[in-house]
Amino acid sequence: MCDRLRKVIAVKRWLVLGLICLQLLSSCSFTNSAIAAGKTLTVATEPTFPPFEFQSANGELQGFDIDLMNALASSAGFKVKYQNMPFAGMIPALQAQTVDAAVAAMAITAERVKTISFSRPYFKSGVAIATRTDNQSITNFDSLKNNIIGVQIGTTGALKAKSIPGAEIRTFNDSPLTLQALLNGNVDAVLNDRVVILYGIKSGNLRKLKLIGDLLTEEFYGIPTPKGSPSLQAINQGLATVCDISALV
Questions:
Q1: Is residue 249 part of a domain?
Q2: pLDDT at 137 (0 to 100)
Q3: Who wins on pLDDT, 72 or 37?
Q4: Pseudo-torsion of CA 231, 232, 234, 236, nearest 10°?
Q5: Could you report the per-residue pLDDT of 55-91, keeping only the tens digit for each?
Q6: Which candidate among 40, 88, 181, 182 keeps its CA 20 to 30 Å from the CA of 201?
């Protein structure tokens, strides 16, 4: 990880090991011409997805994505105004151009790029399975068959859950609620981002929960913007400046 990014992102080392800043295949020279100096971008975020974005006890926005966006905004010369909204509402908001971008650990998928544009990738992760430590019957994806699965609305974990034969899918508005439902025995397993599950278990001291099996997907997170947005150039410029590696840290 570059020194500049290390100074502005205060994230536990085990999380930072998952960071990947990829170079674009082509070499581009970026300028600030796409965004007037000092312009403010309205950026959607969902502060219930720790450690990527969450609120402190006094309501301050924190997390990996927030620190990253602040860093690249400072580098590229624009300002940020955050707007809280549910994850499922972000793509419609981007399509309607009521926000300029979003920071929400959003995976770049073929379906999403049909309607919105993404920055270069900045993080590599994937969907994982969580269950209770006393559950010995769920050991991998195939064993999820006919179980009750908890997912967060609009996530790639929710999409993956649809392919489980005979499963009952229960949806929740945010990640902490899925883990709480699992802890309470209301669902048999949860599908969500591996880092988010690990952080939830560790920070909440949820010793009765565990991760099982391998990652179900390989995903790359990007910063989404409306199609054809002039903001994308400045966002990519910021990423190119604060990140200067092309492999896993």
A1: no
A2: 96
A3: 72
A4: 160
A5: 998 989 999 999 999 998 888 888 999 999 999 999 9
A6: 88
Q: For residue 128, report the phi and psi dihedrals to the nearest 5 degrees.
A: -125, 170
Q: DSSP label at 22?
A: P
Q: Which residue in 249, 227, 221, 234 sits closest to 28, CA to CA? A: 234
5 pLDDT exceeds 50? Answer: no
Instruction: Tell me what percent of the residues of the chain surpass a pLDDT of 70.
Output: 82
Question: 156: helix, coil or strand?
Answer: helix
CB 226 within 8 A of CB 113: no
Read off the DSSP letter of residue 107: B
> Is pLDDT above 50 for 6?
no
Q: In this structure, what token pair is assigned to residue 72?
A: 């690249």
Instruction: Report the alpha-carbon angle 12-68-91, nearest 5.
Output: 115
User: Given the structure tokens 């020279």, which residue do they identify?
Assistant: 29
Rounded mean pLDDT, 185-212: 94
Instruction: Tell me the three state secondary structure of residue 123.
Output: strand
**pLDDT score, position 244:** 53
pTM: 0.75
Half-sphere exposure of 87 toward its Cβ, with a 13 Å CA cutoff?
23
User: Is residue 248 situated within a structural domain?
Assistant: no
161 and 117, same structural domain? no
Tokens describing residue 57: 């006890």
Instruction: Give a yes or no: residue 102 inside a domain.
Output: yes
Q: Are residues 119 and 236 in the same domain?
A: yes
80 with 149, same domain: the answer is no
Domain membership of residue 84 (yes or no) is yes
Q: What is the count of structural domains for the chain?
A: 2
Question: Cis peptide before 230, with omega less than 30 degrees from 0?
Answer: no
